[in-house]
Amino acid sequence: MVVGQNNKNQQEESVYNLIPRTEVHVSKASGYVSKFHQNARESFKEGKSKHRTMGYAEEPVPDPQHFLKKHQNDTKQNDSNRHKDTSPSKDHSQRKPPVPSIRDAPKMGARTEKNFIQTNALDVVMTVPKKPERNIVDDRYGDKFPIDPSGLTPKYILKKNFGEVPVYIKSRRADMEKAKQEYQVYVSDYFRRGAMREMDNNERQTILDGLKKQWEDVHHEYQTLSVIIDTIPKRLYKERLEHQMKLLEKDIDLLEKHQIIYIAD
After folding, report:
1. Domain-located, residue 122
2. For 260, left (φ over 0), alpha (ψ -120 to 50), or beta?
3. In contact, 232 and 181? CB cutoff 8 Å
4. Are residues 211 and 189 in the same domain?
5. Which InterPro entries does the record cross-reference, listed alphabetically (predicted)?
6. Has residue 41 been placed in a domain?
7. To 5 degrees, how large is the angle CA 67–CA 73–CA 76?
8. Strand ranges inside the chain, DSSP E
9. Going by C-beta distance under 8 Å and a sequence separation of 6 or more, which residues neighbour residue 255?
10. Structural domain count, the chain
């Protein structure tokens, strides 16, 4: 106890404790209280009754003097069954017929003229056999799936019109052939009047060889130019050779691209 008092005195000994301080008590502002507070409490308690959901904390023991008697709970069970029968979810029209009684005699003496043996034989003969399913198994677990829609069978190449030329291509070819024939008729008519003549293959090949030989000569002169073009005459000479090679290449391409060439006289 002495040690505790010394520690307390040491903690209270401070410069700030030399001057006594007055304690200021701040008054707490009153909180807002709704005028409907009492109504809310009453409405919250409405509709609640004791022991409705969880029951009693300790189940009361029945009095031995008031023991359960015969048919005492029949009224409660009848009320509960009556409530179940009158529920809207019960459909009485779907009930099955009652089970026949043991005293109900079965129908005897019913006869028919139908020959079941002959009927069954005809059904077996006339029945179309069912085609087996075309399935494929591709894993070790035995899972199967139909092979026809899987794309593994050559279904499209077995069609009747497989590999045929489409109709629009046939019509386009026919139009092109018709236009070519009309052009040939026009050219032959023009030839009769002596306005143009067709260049034969020998003449065309001779002109083509001459153009290629001339292009090789100009190209050889172009390759013999000096690497450094430092004067105006050299630059003009180089540009003239390039222009000649472009013209020759254009004429050669024209003769090689067109097989039929007409010359106006």
Report:
1. no
2. beta
3. no
4. no
5. Enkurin_dom, Enkurin_domain-protein
6. no
7. 145
8. 135-137, 144-146, 196-198, 262-264
9. 204, 207, 208, 211, 261
10. 2
Whether residue 244 is contained in a domain is answered as yes
Tokens of 118: 């002959």
* Domain boundary, last residue among 152, 171, 194: 194
Question: Following DSSP, what letter does each residue of 139-157 receive, concatenated?
Answer: STT--EEESGGGT-S--ST
pLDDT in tens, 193-220: 766 777 888 888 999 999 999 999 999 9
* Model pTM above 0.70: no
Whether residue 23 is contained in a domain is answered as: no
Is residue 121 left, alpha or beta, with left meaning phi > 0 and alpha meaning psi from -120 to 50?
alpha
**What does the pLDDT average to over 3-13?**
53
Q: How far is the C-alpha of 253 from the C-alpha of 6, rounded, in Å? A: 121
pLDDT-derived band at 78, boundaries 50, 70, 90: low
Q: Phi, psi (5° rounding) for residue 137?
A: -120, 120
